[in-house]
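Journal club side-thread
Mid-discussion, someone asked how the predicted structure for our own chain would compare to the paper's figures. Pasting it here so we can look after the session.
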Amino acid sequence: MTDVQITIDNKTYAGATQPTIKNFQLSLKANEFVCLVGSSGCGKTTLLNCLSGLDTHYEGDIQVGEQHTTPKIGYIFQNPRLLPWRTVRENIELVLAPNQSPAVIDVLLDFMQLTQSQHEYPERLSVGMNRRVAIIRAFAVNPDLLLMDEPFVSLDPPTARDVRALLLQLWQQRPHTVLFVTHDLREAITLADRLIFLASTPMRVISDIVVPIPRTQRHDETAIESFRQQLLNNYPDIKLLL
């Protein structure tokens, strides 16, 4: 069970005339699925990189879980980033801790319908299958925080819908605290407990909205579209972010 507290006082890239992120605060509850929605360049990926430890050049404090512990972070990028010279299974095995049972891989491969492809190389798989491998790799470490940066952006709508459904099923079986970046408002409503809408220069929260649709009804496209229209009508600034 992992709460996340984010405070970034200043994140300015070298040579930039203004900060990308300044005086930014965000809290996530344990096992909460939160979607970040904002225009390109507003700082969403920068925020994820700071959270993951890939970027440490910022002023502020990020607390994942209890103090004085080293959190496990799972990160799913826009590109699956699988090593082409390793098989599906070998790509997943790379992230396991030395004392971690490989049985978790078998469970996740079965869930993601990839057991038959576990000894294939990434180039022999479809884009959607590679996305599923990336999801397995992130879940395999049993992360305290799972970061997802537009992981379905390159998929065609039917494939994205199928992989999104598998992700939700997996997350409901193996809950983690999730921070998910997307430009797709329907996708955000389908997935999230909360929607965080972000404006840029520097990045700031302009709306923090709880999704009221029960998870048992998230497959109902009419309910999703109705809430989307409600958001666009009630928060006109959101249209500028999509």
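Post-session note: DSSP finds seven helices and nine strands in the chain.
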